[in-house]
Amino acid sequence: MASPFDLLVDVIHSTTLDSWKERNDKALAALFGTRYAKRAERSVTLRAPDMKGSDAGVPYAAYIHPSNADAGAYGMCFVIFPVEGAPCLVAMGIGTQGLAPDETILGRPGHARKIQAICTWLNHRFGSGVQVAWAKQDPTRVDIDVPAPIQNAWTIYERARYGRVLYAIYRPRMIEPGPSPRSRPCSIFSSRNAATHHSRNFRTMRSRYSLPGLST
Q: Omega of the bond prior to 4 within 30 degrees of 0, cis?
C-alpha cells in the first residue's frame, strides 16, 4: 500500500541533484490531504534551490515555516542535504538565523527527548553496529558541533557545514539492488512506527507549526 511519505523517502534515498526542487515540491504536497489535513499545507513551505553543478553553495531542501523570508536566514527546519552518489543527509536544525523565534520549542525537554529517541531507534534499526544517527542532548547548544569522529567518517557530507546549528542528523544506508525500496523499511519514514515518531515530533511544533494531527 502506498504511503504519503513515499516521495519523501525517494528524495532522501536519491543519489542525484536532478530535478531537486521539483521532487521536493511533490514530496511536500503528497503529505497533505493524506497524512495531514489539506488545510495544514499553509503551515509549511519549502526552500530548495537548484544548485546542481555549482560549487559556490551548499545544496539543500529546508522545510520551514512560511513566516520565513524567501531568501536569507531562516529558522527551525527539517532539512535534507543531497550529494551525488549517496543518499541524502537528513537533519533537524535551529536554522541559520539563530534560536529566535523558535527557542521555546527548541528548549523543551520533551522535544529533545523525542529527537534523541528517534536517533536511538534509527541506530538500532538501521545501523547494524554502525552509527547512522546522532542528536544533541540540548538542541539550543549552538556551541556544540557534530562530533569529530562522525565528521571524519561522514566526509561525503562535508559540504553540509552547518554542524553547530544541526541538532539531529541521520545518514541513510545505501539501498542494495533487489526489491523495491518501498518493500523494505529503509528510512525513518518507511514503517508505521517510524511515521508515528515523525508525526509526534511535528506535534511538538504545534505552537508555531499548526499541523493537525522528526543521543545515540
A: no
